[in-house]
Amino acid sequence: MQPIILALAKGRTVTGILRLLRKTGYDFDGFHEKSRKLVFLDSTNQIQLIFVKAVDVPTYVEKGAADIGIVGRDNILESQADVYEMLDLKEGKCKFVVAGKNKSVLQKNRLTVASKYPFIANSFFQQNGIQAETIKLNGSVELAPIIGMADVIVDIMETGKTLQENGLIVLEELEDITTRLNYK
Ligand code: PRP
Q1: How far apart are CA 14 and CA 104, in angstroms?
Q2: Could you tell me if 137 and 55 are in contact, meaning their C-beta atoms sit under 8 angstroms apart?
Q3: What are the φ and ψ backbone dihedral angles of 40, each rounded to 5 degrees?
Q4: Judgement on whether residues 99 and 172 belong to the same structural domain of the protein
Q5: Which of 45, 79, 103, 135 fits a disulfide with 58 by CB distance 3.0 to 4.6 angstroms?
Q6: Same domain, yes or no, for 27 and 59?
Q7: Contact between 144 and 114 (Cβ < 8 Å)
Q8: Do the Cβ atoms of 21 and 28 come closer than 8 Å?
Q9: 77 and 141 housed in the same domain
Q10: Structural domains in the chain (count)
């Protein structure tokens, strides 16, 4: 029988997810954090794990290249991919927030927003009747308000450390995010 192909998002949730898989009987002995290998077969030969950039997991699942995916709901929502969220794995808990240097920035007639999640950002400001122009960035979005490229960011916050260390505060909380098992 062919193994199930599981696309797992690279990044900080990997260790927790592998622990979860081990508990359910799927052990990926060959995996170690510093490895650059992208494909692993579990010891029962039932699951082939492929490590994928988080933003790409919904695409692999939608296109049928992976049977199931494990990735944060943030990436599923942003991708608008045609996939089903089967299970909340209760890992990678974080939330979408709007953050900036201070609350007064929200009084502007038109906001400039930097985000890795332009679809989420645009939807939020549209729903709230706020005019906003969104600049898509691929990381280190906290820089944008600091250097004056944007008024606010829409991003995920886990511990809050990145915001704090860059002098930004939460202006609005959007929604809670966790890691989800998804399939087509
Ligand atoms: C994510 C997110 C924030 C940070 C939040 O970035 O975009 O920058 O983590 O985590 P915290 O609240 O625990 O500080 P990531 O680490 O993926 O890096 P990136 O800037 O390259 O996107």
Answers
A1: 38
A2: no
A3: -135, 140
A4: yes
A5: 79
A6: yes
A7: yes
A8: yes
A9: no
A10: 2
Span from the CA of 4 to the centroid of ligand 1 (angstroms) = 30
Closest residue to atom 18 of ligand 1, CA basis: 139
Cβ proximity of 60 and 7 under 8 Å: yes
Residue 82, token pair as written in the block: 């045609």
Question: What is the number of the ligand 1 atom nearest to the C-alpha of 157?
Answer: 12
> Which residues' Cβ are closer than 6 Å to ligand 1?
139-140, 142, 155-162
pLDDT reading at 32 higher than 90: no
Q: What ligand 1 atom has the least distance to the C-alpha of 142?
A: 8
Round the average pLDDT of the chain to a whole number and report it.
96
> By alpha-carbon position, which residue is closest to atom 2 of ligand 1?
156
pLDDT at 80 over 90: yes
CA of 25 to the centre of ligand 1 (A): 31
Q: Which of the listed residues 93, 152, 158, 170 should we mutate to test ligand 1's pocket, taking the one with most ligand atoms within 8 A of CB?
A: 158
- Print the domain residue range for 9: 4-92+179-183
- In this structure, the residue with its CA closest to atom 19 of ligand 1 is 139
Q: Do residues 68 and 124 share a domain?
A: no
For the domain that residue 164 is a member of, what is the CATH number?
Answer: 3.40.190.10
User: Averaged over 13-19, what is the pLDDT?
Assistant: 95
Q: Which amino acid residue places its CA nearest to atom 1 of ligand 1?
A: 156
Atom of ligand 1 nearest to the CA of 140: 20
In the prediction, which pLDDT does 142 show? 98
123 with 142, same domain?
A: yes
